[in-house]
């Protein structure tokens, strides 16, 4: 699906000294396994998510992009959290229960597959906070899970290792090709650029590199 927005004017940021029209091509729902009749939105770690994104010439979003995607939602459901009991929220049966709850909320609202609906998942995102702090370079960043009033339940969080995944995590694929003022550009190159990154991020630094590829996975002592 194509989404479109105009960047705000920020006098202190050169690239935002005038508005720019941005077009993104975004998957309408989170990455799932199965088919339209029998599927599950599949939580996964960032290394697997990045490998899938790369294979499809896609990229993972920034928190700013997640908000812009949420802005164009055609509907909303409120978040459906599970209480953390031990490691239950990391178990596949909880992934399944969460997916069933989301589908029930879809049906209760009369929504259909293919609609942009907010409130489903937290996004695995790209952020400069992982790349610029050695404490977090083998971690995952998550953000989002918007309520119907538009506010995000989860601020950007970077303290889970990249092995961690729970039922609330989702993978939103975004085409690496976008347009800026009708000119085709590569989102990864934008996010890595010291001058252009603010078109698609509201963070203080570019994201270098704008990928989880090449990150070292966590290893546990035996």
Question: Which labels suit this protein?
Answer:
21% helix, alpha+beta, four-stranded mixed beta sheet, globular, 222 residues, four-stranded antiparallel beta sheet
What does this entry look like structurally?
21% of the residues lie in helices and 25% in strands. With 222 residues, it is of the alpha+beta class. The strands form 5 sheets. A 4-stranded antiparallel β-sheet has the order 1-2-13-14. A 4-stranded mixed β-sheet has the order 10-9-8-11, with helices on one face. It has a two-stranded antiparallel sheet with strand order 3-4. Strand 13 (177-180) and strand 14 form a beta hairpin. The longest helix has 18 residues, at 92-109. The model has no long low-confidence stretch (mean pLDDT 94).
Give the structure's gist in a few sentences.
This protein has 222 residues and is α+β, with helices and mostly antiparallel strands. It is 21% helix and 25% strand. The protein has helices at 46-55, 63-71, 92-109, 128-131, 187-192; strands at 2-6, 21-25, 32-34, 39-41, 58-59, 75-76, 117-118, 122-124, 139-146, 152-161, 169-170, 174-175, 177-180, 183-186.
């Amino acid at each position: 699906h194509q989404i479109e927005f105009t960047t705000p004017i920020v006098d202190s940021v050169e690239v935002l000294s005038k508005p720019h029209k941005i077009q993104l091509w975004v998957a309408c729902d989170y990455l799932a396994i199965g088919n339209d009749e029998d599927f599950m939105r599949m939580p996964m770690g960032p290394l697997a998510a990045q490998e899938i994104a790369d294979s499809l010439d896609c990229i993972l979003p920034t928190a700013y992009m997640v908000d812009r995607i949420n802005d164009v939602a055609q509907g909303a459901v409120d978040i459906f959290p599970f209480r953390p009991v031990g490691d239950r929220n990391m178990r596949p049966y909880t992934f399944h229960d969460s997916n069933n709850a989301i589908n029930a909320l879809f049906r209760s609202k009369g929504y259909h597959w293919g609609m942009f609906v907010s409130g489903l998942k937290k996004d695995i995102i790209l952020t400069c906070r992982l790349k610029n702090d050695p404490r977090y370079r083998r971690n995952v960043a998550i953000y989002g899970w918007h309520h119907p009033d538009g506010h995000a339940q989860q601020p950007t969080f970077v303290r889970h290792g990249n092995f961690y995944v729970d039922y609330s995590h989702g993978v939103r694929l975004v085409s690496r090709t976008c347009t800026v003022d009708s000119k085709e550009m590569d989102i990864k190159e934008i996010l890595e650029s010291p001058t252009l990154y603010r078109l698609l991020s509201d963070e203080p630094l570019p994201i270098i590199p704008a990928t989880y590829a090449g990150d070292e996975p966590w290893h546990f002592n035996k």
